[in-house]
Amino acid sequence: MNPTKIEIIDPRTVWTGEDKAPVTLVMYGDYESEACAKAQEVIDQLLKQKKGNVRFQYRHFPLTRIHQYAHKAAEAAVAAVQEGRFWEMHRLLFAHRKRLGSISLKEYAAEAGVKDKNFIPKLVDSVYGWTVRADLLEGVDKGVRDVPTIYINDQLYTGKINTAAISRAIEELIPDKRKRA
Q: What value does the CA radius of gyration of the chain take, rounded to a whole number of Å?
C-alpha cells in the first residue's frame, strides 16, 4: 500500500435534505457564475418550501475558459467535504464569487470550519483536482455544456430556473400526500 496515497471522500456522497425524499435535484455549477448563484438561491428556497420532499446535490462544472478561479474554488469545496464542511464552504464560495483567489479561499475555509493546516499546499498541488474533473467529465457525458444545469430525478430540467417553475416540476413528482397518510 502506498503510504502517501490520500483517501478522498467523494463529494457525490454529500446531499442536503431528507434521505428518503421522493425528489432529487442535482445542479452542475460553477462558483464564479452569477446564474449558478441565482439558481442556488432558488434551490435553497425550494428546499425550505418542500422540506422532506426534496434533496439536493451540487456537482462541479467549472467553466475554466471564462472563470479562472472556478476550478480552484471547486477544489476548495472538495477539501471542505473531507471535514464535513461542504455546505458551509459552498455557501461562502457563492457569497464571495467575485473574490476566489487562494488567499480568499483559505479565509473562507477557516470561516467554514475547515481545520486542515495543509489546505493551501493541497490546493497548490491540486490534490482534489481529479475529483473536480470527475464531476466535470460525468457532466460532459450527460450532455452538460453550460451552467447551471439541473437534473430532477435524473432527468434534465429544461424549464426556467425560478422558484415557481421548478416548484411545479417538483410537485408533479411528489406522490399524492393522501396516499402517505
A: 17
Of 25, 20, 147, 7, the C-alpha closest to 74 is 147
Q: Residue 8 in contact with residue 43, Cβ under 8 Å?
A: no
At 46-78, the pLDDT tens digits run 999 999 999 999 999 999 999 999 999 999 999
| CA distances for 114 relative to 66, 88, 105, 180, angstroms | 28, 10, 11, 40
Domains and CATH numbers, the chain: 18-180 (3.40.30.10)
pTM: 0.91
* pLDDT one-digit tens code per residue, 85-114: 999 999 999 999 999 999 999 999 999 999
Are the C-beta atoms of residues 24 and 56 closer than 8 Å to each other? yes
